[in-house]
Amino acid sequence: MIYDLSDSHIPEGIGNKATYLMRLKQAGFRVPDGFVLGTGIFDETVVRAGAETEIASILRSLTRENITASGESLDGITKKFLLPESAVAEISLRIKPDMKYAVRSSATKEDLGSLSFAGQYKTFLNISGVAAVAEAVTECYRSLYAGT
């Protein structure tokens, strides 16, 4: 599901950065309009790529000795990520073709009160068009498993 940052209800299943932006917007702060993809879209992306079992197996067996090889394997697996057509269709209803967008991660374990992963995941700026926004979202998803 996709949620507008201006929604009055903050849903479960969105990242902490998005939650904080929604709270700021609700409190009257000037936050640009935008939207956030719920975690269900990420889950569906992983399942559609047939990657959930492989990713889980690699992460379970991760050691200091095999970290480079594991990272390379994860990179190959995540290259199969494509957003579901329903998500792309919904994104197409929310963006304007002549505008540029920032596409950023908002992981559920990011920007916590006790720790932060700021800057660990990729951010894409000046993105325009449905296909480019969808690609940037999948690149954000891929960065979850990237070493850099």
How would you describe the overall organization of this protein?
The structure is a single chain. With 148 residues, the chain is mainly α. It contains six helices and four strands, in the order E-H-E-H-H-H-H-E-E-H. It has helices at 16-26, 39-48, 52-60, 67-78, 85-94, 130-143, and strands spanning 2-4, 35-37, 101-104, 123-127. The strands form two sheets. It has a two-stranded antiparallel ribbon with strand order 1-2. The radius of gyration is 16 Å and the shape is globular. The chain starts with a strand and ends in a 5-residue tail after the last helix.
Ends apart, CA distance between termini: 28 Å
- Following the backbone from N to C, one meets helices and strands in this order, namely EHEHHHHEEH
Mean pLDDT: 88
Tell me, briefly, the overall form: globular
Task: Put the structure in a nutshell.
The chain is mainly alpha-helical and 148 residues long. 45% of the residues lie in helices and 10% in strands. The strands form two sheets. It has a two-stranded antiparallel ribbon.
Topology, element by element:
Blueprint lengths: L1 E3 L11 H11 L8 E3 L1 H10 L3 H9 L6 H12 L6 H10 L6 E4 L18 E5 L2 H14 L5
Antiparallel strand pairs: 1-2, 3-4
Helix pairs in contact: 3-4
List keywords for this structure.
single chain; two-stranded antiparallel sheet; mainly alpha; 45% helix; two-stranded antiparallel ribbon; 4 strands; globular
